[in-house]
Write a structure and sequence with these properties.
about 280 residues, alpha/beta, eight-stranded parallel barrel, elongated, binds 3-methyl-2-oxobutanoic acid
Length: about 280
């Protein structure tokens, strides 16, 4: 088996100019495929609130739901680093509550690191979690838990003020001790500047090609989630169509009594059967 990917491997990858691949997963079967394919890190993202639960945002997701999904993913993973999102309101109230919730994701869920949305505003909380020996990945730019404050899912850092703020956020996160930073929906030139300005790896989603690694939501990149397709998503498959076609074929075969055929049916000794009549 290939060597386990750890938070140290993140830094080694950046130091040696090797790109980091990361994908989300929310259940055992998908996690096993994502891991077997060789992905470096698996994120149990709170995006599960949208692509798995069908909510319009990630805000309703709870810490108990994140633990539930983390447990399922952990059982399918041998090599990838397992990172779990801290959901909305699980780290906002106090440092103590943030440490306890991060600890639950590790202790009960089996996560190896947690991800937190926010920059300078959450730096102290993040430092407290890191001091509790729980590795933290930062997340700045478009932070979906701030959807109401942003007034929608919009690209961030296009004007001077917000670009400066995001750059400062990245530096504050590095100082707070995060092992990597997710950069979501920022212009590629800003992502490049941030990547060159910090020593820790940056993982981009909608942040261009200069980041130290990339992350996508698995349902998006497999073409399973069809409610909307963001500009930054490349669909490497169209499973939405394949799955629907497979289900239609199943329905037709059931209606036409073609399924199950003898191949999928258990036989019985005819002498035993006769005794039943
Ligand atoms: O929740 C999630 O899946 C994420 C990724 C989009 C980075 O935070």
């Amino acid at each position: 088996m290939a060597q386990k990917f750890t938070v140290k491997s993140f830094q080694e990858a950046k130091d040696n100019n090797r790109k980091i691949s990361m994908l989300t997963a929310y259940d055992y079967s998908m996690a096993k495929m994502v891991d077997t394919a060789g992905t470096d890190a698996i994120l149990i993202g709170d995006s599960l609130g949208m692509v798995f639960q069908g909510h319009e945002s990630t805000l309703p997701v709870t810490i108990d739901e994140m633990i539930y999904h983390t447990k399922a993913v952990v059982r399918g993973v041998k090599r990838a680093l397992i990172i779990t999102d801290m959901p909305f309101l699980s780290y906002h109230v106090s440092k103590e509550e943030a440490i306890r919730n991060a600890g639950r994701l590790v202790k009960e869920g089996g996560a190896e690191a947690v991800k937190i949305e926010g920059g300078t505003n959450f730096a102290e909380t993040i430092k407290a979690i890191v001091d509790a020996q729980i590795p933290v990945m930062g997340h700045i730019g478009l932070t979906p838990q701030s959807v109401n404050a942003f007034g929608g899912f919009k690209v961030q850092g296009k004007d001077e003020e917000s670009a400066k703020r995001i750059l400062e956020d990245a530096k504050a996160l590095e100082k707070a001790g995060v092992f990597a930073i997710t950069l979501e929906c920022v212009p590629d030139k800003l992502a490049k500047l941030i990547t060159e300005s910090v020593n820790i790896p940056t993982i981009g989603i909608g942040a261009g090609n200069s980041c130290d690694g990339q992350v996508l939501v698995i349902n998006d990149m497999l073409g399973m989630f069809s409610d909307f397709v963001p500009k930054f998503v490349k669909q490497y498959a169209k499973l939405n169509i394949e799955i629907t076609t497979a289900i239609q074929n199943y329905i037709s075969e059931v209606k036409e009594s073609k399924f199950p055929s003898t191949e999928h049916t258990f036989g019985m000794d005819s002498e035993i059967l006769e005794k039943l009549y």
